[in-house]
Design brief:
Distance between the termini: 127 Å
Main location: membrane
Shape: elongated
Largest sheet: 6 strands, mixed
Pfam families: Cadherin, Cadherin_pro
Membrane topology: Lipid-anchor; GPI-anchor
Keywords: Calcium, Cell adhesion, Cell membrane, Cleavage on pair of basic residues, Cytoplasm, Glycoprotein, GPI-anchor, Lipoprotein, Membrane, Metal-binding, Repeat, Signal, Transmembrane, Transmembrane helix
Radius of gyration: 61 Å
InterPro entries: Cadherin (IPR039808), Cadherin-like_dom (IPR002126), Cadherin-like_sf (IPR015919), Cadherin_CS (IPR020894), Cadherin_pro_dom (IPR014868)
Number of strands: 53
Structural class: mainly beta
Length: about 700
């Protein structure tokens, strides 16, 4: 590619005459400029030959105010005041890619209305343009700075980033001629613009003029491929989606100049895998990178497609997609997601099972088919019993591992009540069906359950059997008649009775009739009796094959007889030998019987001569009395005869003795040397007296005292 620059040279010559000949008036210059403007509308002509008739060739000019017209002439877009020292013209089509550099022998091109004037500044610094990725040799001239006041002892100086600042040495200037050169190949993607300063100095380095800004622009070349943000993209589209549904967006980046075609990208789908049912199921917007569906909704059926995932190889090409553009690739994986467009269907309309009566647990697993995605609620089944279970004897749950319905017996079934059960089961999905799909007849099934007869043990009625008896009834007395029946009424079986648990060994049972009699005396005060009740367990066994046994409980409430005489508590009392000290002790009576065979108790001195002259008993309440020492006694242990009588009918009397310890008491201290109990504080005796009185009115406190 070559250019013709004669008109431009003529114009630059006119500019030079204007600045160098003071006699050239502005009017004369304007006249020449107008004439030259008509001649120089075309600055130069471009010669471009791709050996293929130059079809679809496009040109790009480095200066934004110029373009190449249809006749391959460089023409201005608008009035141009400053063209710079260098222009570049880039020609491109499918057969050729070439660039031409135009060196402007001057610094100003005037087009349009110009009013000439003389500038006071003599240092002219045009912007300069450098293509990136230039090849050696270096340095290469990129333009020239002109000073009209340049003298022999003046020099040009270049400063700024790229000259004397990092990155240093990229550009240099000829000190005498002002020619600016680049020292190495540049990368626009690293630095797209350099801002330098040009000045003139004298031989001593003193500033003469300037500094004046020098802007150096790096011209882009298509040296960067499009790069996708990710190597693999993932997207989803719902089955049945209408054509034109956007699935996902592919985005690639190009590091080249975004203001040029070098960074203008176009997207295409290079390959689809698999290609069925159509190799063109998807389309990508060439400019935006949006992937949209092309296939019809009826064909976009997840259940009929050969796969649920499609892979697209996406290519991004710069140069607006031309053949000479650079490319980058990425993979798009599109998953066809499920919607609940298939109702679950039972694999059989009738399921059968059998279960032993009296048992519980899973009896049958119901199977269904569902063509939807197993990982979604459109596949997971929910079962319900809609008929045939009035007593809620059955439950059904979904097995999460295989989606089957597990039908269970939760209440034992009775063969004798019903030998068969017929259930109606319905299956639905967790997610609702799409509007155009409904649950059909196949979404219900019948379950036929046969109950198997099992030999059941006899059943006691009532259970427990409650009776009331007096204690101490004669051995061999009748207690109760047991009643156990065999629930297997469809079978003729006999029942025999036996004792299973009789803690005190008081009872026996007739094995055939079930009559219970005593074999020992019933004692309400026995440790085997609790709350006046004695419990025994009996068994009844049938003659089935194998035999079955049932159990029943007999509870005997025992009525009390006055068969226990009262006894004294405590069995030891303590007093001081000096009757003037503490000479009173509180005693009480206890009885194993219950009211009315207990209190009020009568506590008296025994029938011993002279006993009443030493001791005196006074009643405190129904259960307690106090014994008093009437005169001083020598320290010793004394056995005082007592007579205790309860209020039963007839009353029982107990002739017993109370051991009294007579101790030495000094300064509120009691010394019972040789007594059973160590020395005791006199205050404790007073406390015991008070406590005994309180026990009459607080039975719980009395129980505590007895325990202690």
């Amino acid at each position: 590619m070559s250019v013709s620059v004669l008109p431009l040279i003529l114009y630059l010559l006119l500019l030079s005459l204007y600045f160098t000949l003071p006699s050239l008036t502005a009017d004369v210059f304007a006249g020449f400029a107008v004439v030259l403007m008509y001649v120089c509308v075309c600055v130069f002509a471009v010669v471009f030959d791709d050996c293929a008739e130059n079809q679809d060739v496009s040109f790009e000019v480095s200066h934004p105010d110029f373009l190449i017209d249809e006749d391959l002439n460089l023409v201005p877009r608008r009035d141009v005041i400053d063209s710079g020292a260098v222009l570049f013209v880039h020609g491109l089509n499918a057969h050729a890619d070439d660039m031409a550099q135009v060196d402007i022998m001057g610094e100003i091109v005037g087009l349009g209305d110009i009013t000439p004037y003389r500038t006071k500044r003599s240092l002219l610094v045009p912007p300069m343009f450098v293509p990136e990725n230039q090849r050696a040799p270096f340095p290469r001239s990129i333009g020239k700075v002109i000073s009209y006041d340049m003298k022999d002892d003046h020099y040009f100086r270049l400063t700024g980033k790229g000259a004397d600042q990092d990155p240093k040495g990229v550009f240099s200037i000829n000190r005498r001629t002002g020619e600016v050169a680049v020292s190495r190949a540049l990368d626009r993607e690293a630095i797209a613009f350099y801002h330098l300063q040009v000045s003139t100095t004298d031989m001593s380095g003193n500033l003469v003029e300037g500094p004046v800004d020098l802007d150096v622009y790096i011209i882009d070349q298509n040296d960067n491929r499009p790069i996708f943000k990710e190597s693999r993209y993932s997207g989803e589209v719902l089955e049945g989606s209408p054509s034109g549904t956007t699935v996902m967006t592919m985005t690639a980046l190009d590091a080249d100049d975004p203001n040029t075609d070098n960074a203008v990208l176009r997207y295409i789908i290079l390959r689809q895998s698999p290609e069925k049912p159509s190799p063109n199921m998807f389309y990508i917007d060439p400019e935006r990178g949006d992937i949209i569906t092309v296939i019809s909704p009826s064909q976009l059926d997840r259940e009929t497609l050969p796969t649920t995932q499609y892979e697209l190889e996406i290519v991004a090409k710069d140069m607006a997609g031309s053949e000479v553009g650079l490319t980058g690739t990425a993979t798009a994986t599109i998953t066809i997601t499920d919607r609940n467009d298939h109702a679950p269907e039972f694999t059989h309309s009738l399921f059968q099972a059998s279960v032993d009566e009296g048992s519980t647990g899973v009896v049958v697993n119901l199977t269904v088919d569902d063509r939807d995605d197993p990982a979604t609620g459109g596949f997971r089944a929910m079962y319900s019993i809609i008929n045939g279970d009035p007593n809620q004897s059955f439950e059904i749950h979904t097995n999460p591992d295989n989606n089957e319905g597990m039908l269970s017996v939760v209440k034992p079934l009775d063969y004798e009540s019903s030998m068969f059960h017929t259930l109606m089961i319905r299956v639905e999905n967790e997610d609702p069906l799409v509007p155009d799909v409904i649950y059909g007849p196949s979404s219900t099934a019948t379950v036929y359950i046969a109950v198997q007869d099992v030999n059941e043990g006899p059943v006691f009625f009532p259970d427990p059997l409650m009776v009331t008896k007096w204690e101490n009834i004669p051995v061999g007395s009748f207690v109760a008649m047991l009643n156990a029946t065999d629930p297997d009424f469809r079978q003729i079986q006999s029942v025999r009775y036996g004792v299973l648990r009789d803690p005190a060994g008081w009872l026996s049972v007739n094995p055939v009739k079930g009559m219970v009699n005593t074999t020992a005396t019933l004692d309400r005060e026995s440790p085997h009796v609790h709350n006046n009740r004695y419990s025994a367990v009996f068994m009844a066994t049938d003659n089935g094959n194998p035999p079955a046994t049932g159990t029943g409980t007999l509870i005997i409430t025992l009525q009390d007889e006055n068969d226990n005489a009262p006894y004294v508590v405590p069995s030891v009392a303590r007093m001081c030998e000096d009757a003037k000290e503490v000479n009173v002790a509180v005693i009480g009576a206890r009885d194993k019987d219950i009211h009315p065979n207990t209190d009020p108790f009568k506590i008296e001195l025994g029938k011993q001569l002279g006993l009443e002259k030493t001791w005196k008993i006074s009643r405190i309440n129904n259960t307690h009395s106090q014994i008093m020492l009437l005169h001083s006694l020598q320290r010793a242990n004394y056995n005082v005869p007592l007579v205790l009588t309860d209020s039963g009918f007839p009353p029982l009397t107990n002739n017993t003795e109370l051991k009294v310890q007579v101790c030495t008491c000094k300064k509120n201290r009691m010394d019972c040397n040789g007594a059973v109990t160590p020395v005791t504080d006199l205050l404790l005796l007073l406390s015991l007296l008070t406590l005994s009185i309180l026990c009459e009115y607080h039975p719980d406190l009395q129980s505590f005292v007895d325990k202690e």
